[in-house]
Structure formats: C-alpha cells, structure tokens
C-alpha cells in the first residue's frame, strides 16, 4: 500500500526522498580509516589479514588467473552469456555517441589555444560479492571506460567461501573487457586500489557500488583518487495517465522496492482510480516475490502516491524530487519529456520498464540518487576522461598585450606574475 500525499507538498516529498541518503556514522568512518591506513603502510600483508578476518579466506595471491576465469565461465548458462553479449552491443551503441573531441582555436598574431580530451590511464571497478551478484554493473562500469580509451581496467570483487569469484561476474568481466581481476573486497579493496600494493595496482579512479564500509572507504580516499559517487538507496517515480495498465505500474514500483528496505517507490498520476488499482495490484503481486519482506518494508516506509490535476503538475512534482529513475507511462511521453529537467534516466511509454535500462537497453544504470539528479549525471564516457587546455602566444602577441597582462597581475598584488611578462618585453623594443 502506498501512502497518499498531497500534490502541494512538493518540497516535503522532495526532502523525504533526499533524506533517505544514508549518512556514514563516525564509528564506521573511524573503523574504515584504520583499514585504509593499515593497507597504505603494510600493503599486501594488511590485505591478506583483513581478507582472512572479514571473508574467512586465506589468500596468497589475489590476482585471478586466465585459467580460473575460463573455468568459471564454463559453468555459466549459455543463454545468459548470449544475453550479456547483446547487452554489451546495446551499451556500446549508446555510449559511443558520448565521445568528445578536442579543439584548437586560431587567432591573429600567432595566437592559438584549445583543449585536449584525454582518457584516464587506469580505473578500478568494485563489484560486490556475497549473496548479491551484479554482472550487469560490470558491463555498465567497464564499457564506457573502454570507449573513453582507458588503458587499464582493474576489477576487485570479494572471494566466495571457496576462494573463487562468481562465474557470472567472471563472464561479464571477460565480455566487457576487464584487464585484470583481483579477489578482494571491502574497504581493504578500495585502499589497495587507491594506494597500490605489490600485487594490486594503484588506479586513477574507483567506481562501482558497495556496502556502507565500501562507501566510507571511497569517501575517505577521494582526493587521492577520483570516485564516481556515494550512492543512496534506489528510487523510482512513475507518472501514469488514466490509460496506463495498473498491473504494469505496480510491477515497476516493486522492481525498485525489492532492492532495499530504504528503496523508494512513488506513483504520481492524474487518475483517482489508478491509485486504487495500483494499490490492489501491489498487494497481489508483492506476495509472489521472494523478497516480499524487503518489499513490504520499502512500500510501508518509503512508498508514496500523489494525485495531481494535470500531467504538467506531475512533471513539476517529479522535477522537485529529481528521481533516480523516472517512468513516463503516458500516451505521449515525447511531449512530456520536454518538460523534464531533473531525472537520472527517463523510461518512456507503457512498455519501457526500468528493468530494460538496468540490463539491456544501452543507457547506463549507474545513476544519481537522493535528489542529486538536480546537478549530476548518469555514469558515462565523460566519467573516464579529463580535459587539458593549451595556449600559445607568439612574440608579437605577447608584446601587443603585455601591458594589459601586467596591469591585471599588479591589481592582484602578484608582482612576480607581472615581471614574468616584463622580462619578455625587453625583446619587444
């Protein structure tokens, strides 16, 4: 059952969604900072000790061999392998269009300036282990980096009780083009990627989801390396008109509710009967799900429904919330899309469920949460590049503008800056 809210409470609803962002406690930060410092100083020795402590596994070598990858993949479902390959094609198709080009601008007197677009040299991808395994995240994090031109892509993932990696993760890594895989998880894996050890290489950026300890580690190493984001609980907002199928709407709300007890599912509609029908469908469908306890907690605490006077009002409410996933289950989604300003990713029409984007459609599923779609974007090729500017002034150009540059430098009381120009003016006479 979704809790009914008034459409006029836009700010209240937006704050409600944003407030689910899980604050990292000082206790967790303290514990993680100790792990980071140990790995920074003791390198592989600390990694081995923490792997034994947290995973119950004694590891001598963290790197996964080509033979182990091959053996793991042989146990995968062939249909799953084919689905991964097709998903890869779709993800590549979408992300290739994001590639940027540098430029060079010519001016008079031998002045030229421009910008270079350069790939990061190396990245690390964290892939959770344990009961949850997300091969789709391997594709979503790896493929944009490959397209950007990243030279080395390293993946870390916790070992299972037998000291192996999950076959589906191995398959996704090989298909996506991961260069190296290491069996290590938790904060110690983030530390190894940030600082480097004898076995595990240091990287320039770390991406990928993890538990609260992984999130804390990413937060603390930011600045030593770049990170993608500190993601909050998942969320979906569905805008449905009177022609939408309540069964579809309920199924899509449940697809996010099963992620986490803190996941948020919100229905915004212009139809009173839609609200009632969707609640009925939620009751019917939720009892069939393996994770029904998680679903019930999510819907009870973070499931909301709102009745609006118009679709335009629905979009206004959605823009205030800035949802991670936005579904436009309306007759003319293209027209409504023009009014959407804040959303991580938008799924258009009655048949484009968010699950398509999670796995197969090609758009990236690593998205801003907790209202951060107001100012941040989905993971993409841009996340794996950097931009460097260049500038050239000829002697003639320097002589022409030297006085103006000197004036500006001295206005900021930076005499050495001014004199760097002055010494060159000697040749202008």
UniProtKB/TrEMBL annotation:
It comes from Faecalicoccus acidiformans. NAD(+) binds at residues 126, 188, 211. This is Histidinol dehydrogenase. Keywords: Amino-acid biosynthesis, Histidine biosynthesis, Metal-binding, NAD, Oxidoreductase, Zinc. Catalyzes the sequential NAD-dependent oxidations of L-histidinol to L-histidinaldehyde and then to L-histidine. Pathway: Amino-acid biosynthesis; L-histidine biosynthesis; L-histidine from 5-phospho-alpha-D-ribose 1-diphosphate: step 9/9. GO terms for molecular function: histidinol dehydrogenase activity. Binds 1 zinc ion per subunit. It is an enzyme of class 1 (oxidoreductase).
């Amino acid at each position: 059952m979704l809790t009914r809210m008034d459409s006029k409470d836009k700010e209240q609803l937006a704050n409600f969604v944003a407030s689910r962002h899980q604050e990292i406690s000082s206790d967790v930060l303290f514990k993680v900072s100790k792990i980071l410092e140990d790995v920074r100083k003791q390198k592989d020795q600390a990694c081995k000790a923490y792997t034994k402590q947290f995973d119950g596994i004694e590891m001598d070598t963290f790197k996964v061999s080509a033979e182990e990858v091959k053996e793991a993949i042989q146990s995968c479902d062939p249909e799953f392998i084919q689905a991964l390959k097709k998903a890869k094609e779709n993800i590549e198709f979408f992300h290739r269009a994001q590639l940027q080009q540098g430029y060079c601008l010519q001016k008079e007197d031998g002045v030229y300036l421009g910008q270079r677009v350069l790939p990061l040299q190396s990245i690390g991808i964290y892939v959770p282990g344990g009961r949850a395994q997300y091969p789709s995240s391997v594709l979503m994090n790896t493929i944009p980096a490959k397209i950007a031109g990243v030279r080395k892509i390293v993946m870390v993932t916790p070992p299972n009780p037998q000291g192996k990696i999950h076959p589906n993760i191995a398959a996704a890594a090989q298909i996506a083009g991961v260069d190296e895989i290491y069996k290590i998880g938790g904060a110690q894996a983030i530390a190894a990627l940030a600082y480097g050890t004898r076995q595990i290489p240091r990287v320039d950026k770390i991406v990928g989801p993890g538990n609260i300890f992984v999130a804390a580690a990413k937060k603390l190493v930011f600045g030593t390396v770049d990170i993608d984001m500190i993601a909050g609980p998942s969320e979906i907002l569905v805008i449905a008109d009177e022609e939408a199928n309540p069964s579809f709407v309920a199924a899509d709300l449940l697809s996010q509710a099963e992620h986490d007890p803190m996941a948020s599912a919100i229905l915004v509609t212009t139809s009173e009967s839609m609200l009632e029908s969707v609640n009925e469908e939620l009751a019917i469908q939720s009892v069939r799900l393996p994770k029904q306890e998680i679903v019930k907690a999510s819907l009870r605490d973070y499931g909301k429904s709102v009745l609006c006077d118009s679709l335009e009002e629905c979009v206004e409410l959605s823009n205030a919330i800035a949802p991670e996933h936005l579904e436009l289950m309306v007759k003319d989604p293209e027209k409504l899309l023009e009014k959407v300003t804040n959303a991580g990713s938008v799924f258009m029409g009655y048949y484009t469920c968010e699950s398509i984007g999670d796995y197969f459609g090609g758009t990236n599923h690593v998205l801003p949460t907790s209202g951060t779609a107001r100012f941040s974007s989905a993971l993409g090729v841009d996340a794996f590049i950097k931009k460097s500017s260049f500038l050239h002034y000829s002697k003639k150009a320097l002589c022409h503008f030297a006085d103006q540059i000197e004036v500006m430098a001295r206005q900021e009381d930076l005499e050495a800056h001014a004199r760097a120009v002055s010494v060159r003016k000697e040749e202008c006479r």
